[in-house]
Amino acid sequence: MSVLSKIKWNTIKCTKKELRLDISLKCGQSFRWKSIEHENETIFVGVIDKNLLLFKQDEQFLHYSIEHGHMEEEKIKDYFNLGVDLESLYKQWSKVDPIFNDISVNYPGVRMLRQHPVENLFSFICSANNNIQRISGMVENLAKEYGSKVCEFQGNEYYSFPDIDKLAQTGVEAKLRELGFGYRAKYIEESAGKILQLGGEDWLFSLRKMDYQEAKQNLLQLSGIGPKVADCILLMSLDQPSSIPVDTHVFQIAKKYLPHLNNNKTVTNKVYAEIGDHFRNLYGPYAGWAHSVLFSADLRHLQALKGESSPVKESKKNIKKEPSDVKNETKKNAKSPKATKDLKIKDESKDLDIKDEPGDLKVKDEPTTEKNGELKKSADKLGKKRSKVRAQIDLDRCGKKRTKS
Residue 308: what pLDDT? Predict the structure, then answer.
């Protein structure tokens, strides 16, 4: 009998209309959840604070087991935001939006998590011009390098996310560059230092008490955080359920509601605000949650779950890369977790599309040394081509004049 077969599960009354683990943990909110296929069930494994937890569900109940550490059930409910009546919200949104009404039938239970803002913030700094597989690898490397080991489970080591002061140490940037973080390494060290100057973790948690605009402006002062990343953090960890992150998926979705946006190839600050305001006016205080249902339904890897009433095992798909307003550097794939004879641990990131700061959505320009270098090379090449073309045109013109004379 395997270890998983011996686990004693606790239960929380929670239907799949209120929470779908297979969507909510895989739609790009959090990057360190892994899944295990065991006896026709999908078990999700992850670290919350310094505790290792396992989750599974059936039609009526959420089942959990704390494999290491101690966590009150209320904390678990808080992590999943179970105090919000999601089914009622779905009904409200369906009444005001026929598009949502059609989509919601196949995508119930898309719930926003209430994550710890430290992990959420630095995870999304890693998201700049990146795909989910690589983001997951980076976040895992941050935990392994600067966090503390929580435990070992089924042959895999699990780590807590590092404290802010660990990421602000001298030498963090250099080390992270060695690990393939590129320019994001600088953003991480700088933002960690800035947060400590502003008051540390207490300052970050204080943003939960601010209104949307004030909290957003506070986030925008940090390195590597533009409008879209700020909105992700506000929505997923800072109690701003009306926050609308606008990426390429959301931009395309918004065109169904605002047809005149088909004339826009880029998203200006004005257009970004217009999209957010439209959905806030349409859906109300929890507009960010409703937008996440539309977003999830638009993700290729989640379309396999359409109409499913229980988590399904998906085949691996190619990851679709979205551009960002920060130029990309060389990709380095994260190593997949080990597998055991009793189970297969699946790296969720390999099935996910990108949720990131798109480059064609020019909301905020964040130039980097790498970016400027690439632009200069492109400009030089273009200049040489133009010079050759102009020279050829001059020769042609001279030839025509001689013929006429």
Answer: 59
Both tokens of residue 216? Answer: 């957003």
Q: Tell whether the model's pLDDT for residue 380 goes beyond 70.
A: no
Q: What is the mean pLDDT of residues 378-403?
A: 46
Q: How far apart are CA 232 and CA 27, in angstroms?
A: 12
Active-site residue, from 34, 186, 216, 228: 228
Question: pLDDT per residue over 177-222, tens digit each?
Answer: 999 999 999 999 999 999 999 999 999 999 999 999 999 999 999 9
197/293 Cα distance (integer angstroms) = 37
30 burial (CB, 10 Å; 0-12 / 13-18 / 19+) is buried
pLDDT digits (tens, 9 = 90+) for 329-371: 333 333 333 333 334 444 443 333 434 443 334 444 333 434 4
Q: Is residue 133 within 8 Å of residue 352, measured between CB atoms? A: yes
Q: The tokens of 83 are what?
A: 């105090």
Higher pLDDT, 384 or 327: 384
Three-class SS of the chain? CCCHHHCCCEEEECCCCCCCHHHHCCCCCCCCCEEEEECCEEEEEEEECCEEEEEEECCCEEEEEEEECCCCHHHHHHHCCCCCCHHHHHHHHHHHCHHHHHHHCCCCCCCCCCCCHHHHHHHHHCCCCCCHHHHHHHHHHHHHHHCCEEEEECCEEEECCCCHHHHCCCCHHHHHHHCCCCCHHHHHHHHHHHHHHHCCHHHHHHHHHCCHHHHHHHHCCCCCCCHHHHHHHHHHHCCCCCCCCCCHHHHHHHHHHCHHHHHCCCCCHHHHHHHHHHHHHHHCCCHHHHHHHHHHHHCHHHHHHCCCCCCCCCCCCCCCCCCCCCCCCCCCCCCCCCCCCCCEEEEHHHHCCCCCCCCCCCCCCCCCHHHHHHHHHHHHHHHHHHHHHHHHHHHHHHHHHHHHC
pTM recorded for the entire structure: 0.77
What is the gyration radius of the CA atoms in the chain, in angstroms?
24
CA distances from 8 to 65, 303, 365 (A): 7, 32, 51
In the annotation, is 95 catalytic?
Answer: no
pLDDT tens digits, residue range 104-120?
999 999 999 999 999 99
